[in-house]
Write a structure and sequence with these properties.
Two copies of one chain form a homodimer. Chain A folds into two domains: about 270 residues, Spore Coat Polysaccharide Biosynthesis Protein SpsA, Chain A (Alpha-Beta Complex); about 80 residues, no CATH class. Chain A is about 35% helix and about 25% strand. The first copy, chain A, contains eleven helices and 17 strands. The first copy, chain A, starts with 7 loop residues before the first strand and ends in a 7-residue tail after the last helix.
């Protein structure tokens, strides 16, 4: 069991819908509210349970949309009111994590925050805790720290982090500097990265002193920083918060934290990385969900859905069933079938990435009622 | 336009469910009640419309199950009460067609009947009529006459009829004797048949004097014949029909008319054939339905369903939609998706024949509620 880290605060941005998992994930039922692993809990709840031993139940904040407040509080009965940070509309990760940093920094200028996505899957609790403990040690030295996952295959679905020299920090034997971030590569490049061993998957985890993160944001995105600081100043005053959100939030720049903070910090030698030796997946599409549930067994059919009444014959891939209909899959290989009350998707594991395009087409063609 | 043939009576056996088209076709919505061609009419109605110019509206009988009476009368508002022959349970085609022959023979000993399936698709009205007119001419000479379809491809899904010598009948220049019936062949054999030109597809159409058909039945299946004659004697008496059906019908032998009448008649040189130069398909499974709707264009997606809200991207095959759900097919080739309120089937054109096995499995596993 991990000991609670006293100056640590966990932040869970719970914002993305998970468009590539449509029609399972949608605006009113985003990915983080689903149980995609059969654990019996939502991904959000699993994330909370993973962080509670490190931060304690009173020091985990969730940044989410107003529409999801009730669902989030339902999943996390232990969350304090003051730890639910509501966005009036989505403004991407720099605004979401930056808001949490600004609020928590106001409450405690020395706080170290760690941001962890609400909808990733992690297996291996102890090694996860060990990675976070190391990251916090390095963050205390003024670094922004990310946790990178040593690749186990030449994935073209993730971004990569290139490690540079090791840095010597007590209690963080695996710490290294980050040379640069790399966008999703092609397959040949991914194979080189796998062989090279100095490339890690970018799992979107950031640990830093709130003050350091805000400094970096101020240097790179001064307007965004100013807006967030102004918002944070009003936040803990009941009367001021609402008007401040309405005035400031819609004007904040939409930018990913990778671009607003992490990449510039890497260039300045201020970004460190700890390798995370746990199983990690962002479950970005039905291909990765299939792999996750079948444990990579190619001929298996993964079935997700408690009410599923299924009859299959020589089928493989994934079936997600949210209705009580009888479903029969006959002779279909690597198939993806997602059966919900008002929408049905049939595709293949190979084409799983194209589901996002479907969602965009539905928007354009006026069928947004099922998004 | 054809002239009505005065001594001709059309018989439409409307019995089969069409299990290979599950979950579109089912016990309470058999294939013949569906519009599979986009004509705006059920296959049953199309069959009626094809026969009416030849027989006249008062001389078309339908043999169907009690459960389908209302649906049949709904589709065929012009049908006379006396022309609806209700089976208390299915007993296969020899009993169904034999019953019609026995009843109509009692009403008119000289009648020539022609039996045509309720759920086949035919294109080419004039050539159809010309084939029936020739068949009636040959039937007047005491033959049992079938209409065979010249193959256009080496089909392994149909039975075949091997032609023998021509026979000389006035008004029937294409008449020939039948040497034998052949069960569904393998592909190599089907290719030989296609090249040979003396093999025709067995389209299950029989034209004969009712008296001749009954004689043949008496010779081959005397018990079945006796039961049908007894039933026919009671049929047109309101008080007698019900008890006679209850007593006799359930004990009648289940046998196809091909075995009970046509094959033995062929051996005795009493079976003739007229080639039918029209497009014909029994639409036995989703592969043939796909071909029918796409006119064989391999890269097309056939969509059947007035309420379909469909979004596809590089998909081919067939989608049958009976719900108002949004359906998205992405990158799936030669797919078969059948979306109904209580059951969903996903298979491929290649595996279409295996759908019947699904239906049997559903029976066995206690999910007969969706059959």
């Amino acid at each position: 069991m991990a000991h609670v880290i006293p100056d640590f605060y966990a932040v869970i941005p719970a914002g993305g819908i998970g468009s590539r998992l449509w029609p399972l994930s949608r605006a009113d039922a985003p990915k983080f509210l689903h149980d995609l692993t059969g654990s019996g809990h939502s991904l959000l709840r699993d994330t909370w349970d993973r962080l509670e031993p490190l931060a304690g139940p009173d020091r985990i904040a969730v940044v989410t949309g107003r529409a999801h407040r009730a669902a989030v509080e339902g999943e996390l009965p232990g969350i304090a009111d003051a730890n639910v940070f509501l966005e009036s509309e989505p403004r991407e990760s720099a605004a979401a994590i930056g808001l949490a940093a600004a609020i928590l920094h106001r409450r405690d200028p020395e706080v170290i925050i760690g941001s962890f996505s609400a909808d990733h899957v992690i297996r291996g609790t102890q090694v996860f805790e060990w990675a976070v403990q190391q990251a916090v040690q390095v963050a205390r030295q003024g670094y922004i720290v990310t946790i990178g996952i040593p690749p186990t295959e030449p994935s073209v679905g993730f971004g990569y982090i290139k490690k540079a020299d090791e840095i010597v920090v007590d209690g963080a034997p695996e710490a290294a500097l980050v040379e640069r971030f790399v966008e999703k590569p092609d397959l040949d490049t991914a194979k080189e990265y796998l062989a090279d061993r100095s490339y890690l998957w970018n799992a979107g985890m950031f640990i830093a002193k709130a003050s350091v993160l805000l400094e970096e944001l101020a240097a790179n995105e001064p307007e965004l920083h100013a807006g967030l600081v102004e918002l944070a100043a009003a936040w803990d005053d009941r009367d001021l918060r609402g008007p401040a959100v309405d005035r400031i939030w819609p004007r904040l720049k939409k930018i990913a934290i990778d671009y607003a903070v992490a990449e510039p910090a890497a260039e300045r030698g201020r970004l460190a990385v700890i390798p995370g030796h746990f199983d990690w997946d962002d479950v970005g599409d039905f291909a990765s969900l299939t792999k996750l549930i079948t444990h990579g067994r190619k001929n298996d059919l993964a079935v997700l859905g408690p009410k599923a009444r299924v009859l299959t014959d020589a089928a493989s891939g994934i079936l997600v069933s949210q209705t009580s209909r009888v479903i029969s899959l006959v002779g279909v290989k690597d198939i993806v079938v997602v059966d919900t009350e008002d929408a049905l998707l049939v595709t293949t594991v190979e084409h799983a990435q194209r589901v996002k395009g479907v969602v965009e087409s539905l928007k354009v063609t006026g069928r947004g009622d099922v998004l």
